[in-house]
Amino acid sequence: MAAKRPGRRTGAVTRRCGRGLMTVDDNLSALNSSAAAWGRDPTLVQGAGGNVSIKLDDVMWIKASGTWLADADMQDILVPVAMPASDVPRVKDGYATALRPSIETSVHAALPHRVVVHVHSVDAIAHAVRSDAEAELSQRLSGLAWAFVRYCKPGPTLAAAVRDAHAATSADIFVLANHGLIVAADDVAQADRLLREVVSRLSIAPRLPLAPQGTPSATSIAGFRAVPDPHVISLAVDPTSLAIATGGPLYPDHVVFLGPAPLVVDRYDEINVALADTRRDRASIRWIIVRGSAVLLAHDALRGSDAILRCLADVAARIPPGAPIAPLCAADVDALIDWDAERYRQAMATRSDRPHGAP
Ligand SMILES: [Zn+2]
Prior knowledge:
The chain is α+β, with helices and mostly antiparallel strands. It folds into 2 domains: 13-202, Class II aldolase/adducin N-terminal domain (L-fuculose-1-phosphate Aldolase, 3-Layer(aba) Sandwich), CATH 3.40.225; 224-349, no CATH class. Helix content is 34%, strand content 16%. It contains 13 helices and 13 strands. The chain has helices at residues 24-39, 105-109, 122-128, 133-140, 156-169, 188-202, 230-237, 239-245, 252-258, 271-276, 305-316, 330-337, 340-349, and strands at residues 13-17, 20-23, 51-56, 59-63, 78-82, 115-119, 146-149, 173-176, 180-185, 224-226, 263-265, 287-290, 294-298. The strands form 3 sheets. Strands 5-4-3-6-9-8-7 form a 7-stranded mixed sheet, with helices on both faces. Strands 10-13-12-11 form a 4-stranded mixed sheet. A hairpin with a 2-residue loop joins strand 3 and strand 4. Helix 7 crosses helix 8. The protein is globular and about 65 Å long. The two termini are 21 Å apart. 48% of the residues are buried.
């Protein structure tokens, strides 16, 4: 349900810009338009990932948890949060909405910039999951005001780290280890330009997907369906991508959507035996890799899991053989799995009222 704004808000002048006065609605419209474009670029945003915000007067409008940036120009995805936002942000008095603010609201509130954009850029992530990330980033982002933020669980802990990084550096670009990218600016157009500049500088040419040898054997089995995307299949075929896919979860959405690890087998006929192994937590197996052959996804996987698998394939294809990878540690993985706010987002992900398919 959309947030209902009191009539006195609509049309209120909030700031001047070069082309005249911008109302609250003008600002929200500009943000929604850009957010939809960012959300429909799978190299920036996958599924319900990423979020945006704009601070106008004493309200911060931020993406609602579980909504998709790709929908921003078709339905209201923004909720108004009272500023200053607390660790448990609340919807601004006088506004009615059934939506809940993004689980990363406190991160947006931690920055003084009017517009904050957070994306899961596959190019940024391909750098940010490496233990040697900072040296490469220093070269690529030379001359820009940027900071590297160590991995923190999304929410108040990450917000504190981003706040500290900004206080120490006055950065408006934040590369989040094992997570993604934040850019912050005074208006939507500036944020869009900055995002494009950073992503361009971080761009890595991906390896082309490798196809399975011989006759394709991609068939579905009970409870799982074969993923047809050749980029995803390459996770099972490309040796470097396979090593990355089986080396441990790399970032929060990887854990939340794909679980702590895939089931890995050498042949299709090993799958049912492996699934029946009582030493495994069957419910935690969201996907299966048949080495050299196929990738299968659970029928009951969360909506958006195909996009998250493609993200992993795109990230892996941008990491060269032998690169030092720093996956999330077991404690970080456990913290993401046992997380109430994330359960709400997952519940939203099971809803089927989204008007169109993948971004
Ligand atoms: Zn994120």
